[in-house]
TrEMBL record:
Membrane-spanning segments: none
GO biological process: chromatin organization; regulation of DNA-templated transcription
Organism: Corchorus olitorius
Name by which UniProt lists this protein: PHD finger protein ALFIN-LIKE
PANTHER family attached to this UniProt entry: CPG BINDING PROTEIN, PHD FINGER PROTEIN ALFIN-LIKE 2
Region of interest (Disordered), residue spans: 132-170
Protein's cellular compartments: Nucleus
Coiled coil: none
Record family assignment: Belongs to the Alfin family.
Length: 234
């Protein structure tokens, strides 16, 4: 039995993920195997890059997280392309769950590295729908500075940017390291609160300008100390 308690390296887990993904991406026409008249069926990808459509494991709890159950039931009630896309989305979720189950003993940095390696590969859904990865990098005065930070628009609405999932398959760590605090000159750190000036669009550590996440909620338009002083002189 494959157990999460077994020590595994990031490379071993990624190899397992990659093999299972390859199996699913290269399945032959399994449409005919997913007869809605049959019992609950699952699509499995195996570490040896083979695949199968089969009934779920009988043992409880199973050795590994199980794929989506009953993919065959919706087959005839949906457009074929839509059905394949749905199976692909569920397959992506399953692949991630297996990888992080096997990586239960990884530390924070190892989990981050594992996700980064996984994220460099197109998802099954993107392969099935023939979507191409977005290669354009955000500019320094827009999205590239705002990961894990908060900025307000003129209407007072908070705009926040998630710092994990990104549409680009480029490694953005170097790109974000170029963002410097306008006060202390320190490098961008996703673990710290940052706030952007709506006037000059520079970014600051919240602690450097004495702004907390809670306080930022009440600010409709943030002006950094430099911009506030300039406006005062006019």
């Amino acid at each position: 039995m494959e157990m999460a308690s077994a020590a595994r390296t990031v490379e071993e887990i990624f190899k397992d993920y990659s093999a299972r993904r390859t199996a699913i991406v290269h399945v032959d026409d399994f449409y005919g195997l997913c007869d809605p008249e049959k019992e609950n069926l699952c699509l499995y990808g195996h570490p040896n890059e083979s695949w199968e459509v089969n009934l779920p494991a009988e043992e409880v709890p199973p050795e590994l997280p199980e794929p989506a159950l009953g993919i065959n039931f919706a087959r005839d009630g949906m457009n074929r392309k839509d059905w394949l896309s749905l199976v692909a989305v569920h397959s992506d979720s399953w692949l991630i769950s297996v990888a992080f189950y096997l990586g239960a003993r990884l530390n924070r940095n190892e989990r981050k590295r594992l996700f980064s390696m996984i994220n460099d590969l197109p998802t099954v859904f993107e392969v099935v729908t023939e979507r191409k990865p977005v290669k354009d990098k955000p500019s320094m005065d827009s999205g590239s500075k705002s990961r894990g930070s908060t900025k307000r628009s003129s209407d007072g609405q908070v705009k926040s940017n998630p710092k994990l999932v990104d549409e680009s398959y480029e490694d953005e760590e170097d790109e974000h390291s170029e963002t410097l605090c306008g006060s202390c000159g320190g490098n961008y750190n996703a673990d710290e609160f940052w706030i952007g000036c709506d006037m000059c669009e520079r970014w600051y550590h919240g602690k450097c300008v004495k702004i907390t996440p809670v306080k930022a909620e009440s600010i409709k338009q943030y002006k950094c100390p430099s911009c506030s002083m300039k406006r005062g002189r006019q």
